[in-house]
Amino acid sequence: MTDPRRRSGAETRAAAQRVALALFISQGYEATSLRQIADELGIQKASLYYHFRNKEEIVASTMAARGAEAQELLNWARSQPMAPDLLRRTVLRWIDSFSAEKLHGIRFIAANPVLMRTLAADSPHPIRDNLSAVAEMFTVTSPDRRTLIRMAFLSINAAVTASAGTSAGDEEIIAAAREAALALVDRIESDH
């Protein structure tokens, strides 16, 4: 980890998000304190307060960052010419953007549904909304096709859930999600 004295504000925020998520997953959201997060970062609790007022703000900022990535995907897809392989390229762009760190986010969401509902009630849901907008680009009128497209994008979530309690590593989970997404895209393309 970078020396805390040499991190920029943006680096400290990103490090706090990573550390907090890892602690939330390993010991539980409720059991994790801001003091523990600050200690793990090697900074004073007051310094952490400069970036985040509370744990909810850390979680919300993490979700907002992923929502921004979904917005970037939407913007990218809209900027591309509508070609037969655009759905495939768009789905793969999303799945391939996942890292071990981002899988931690999915695990956290799955383990904390009440907190996530509370946070969602207070703000829009940019990940879901942007991925839905991407899916709408590729659907005409078929509800079945719309569902399959959404399933392709969410194959990463399904792979994380399905791997719980197994020895599957993060790379294997991403590979499984990619395989499932491609199978769904093949099915969609064969119906088209």
Describe the structure.
The protein is mostly helical and 192 residues long. The chain folds into 2 domains: 1-53, Orthogonal Bundle (Arc Repressor Mutant, subunit A); 62-191. The protein is built from 11 helices and no strands. The protein has helices at residues 9-27, 34-41, 45-51, 55-79, 86-95, 100-111, 113-122, 126-137, 143-153, 155-163, 170-191. Helix 8 (126-137) crosses helix 9, helix 9 packs antiparallel against helix 11 (170-191) and helix 10 (155-163) crosses helix 11. It is elongated. The mean pLDDT is 89.
List the helices and strands and how they pair.
Blueprint: H1 9-27, H2 34-41, H3 45-51, H4 55-79, H5 86-95, H6 100-111, H7 113-122, H8 126-137, H9 143-153, H10 155-163, H11 170-191
Tally of structural domains? 2
Structural class: mainly alpha
| Helix count from the secondary structure assignment | 11
String of helices and strands: HHHHHHHHHHH
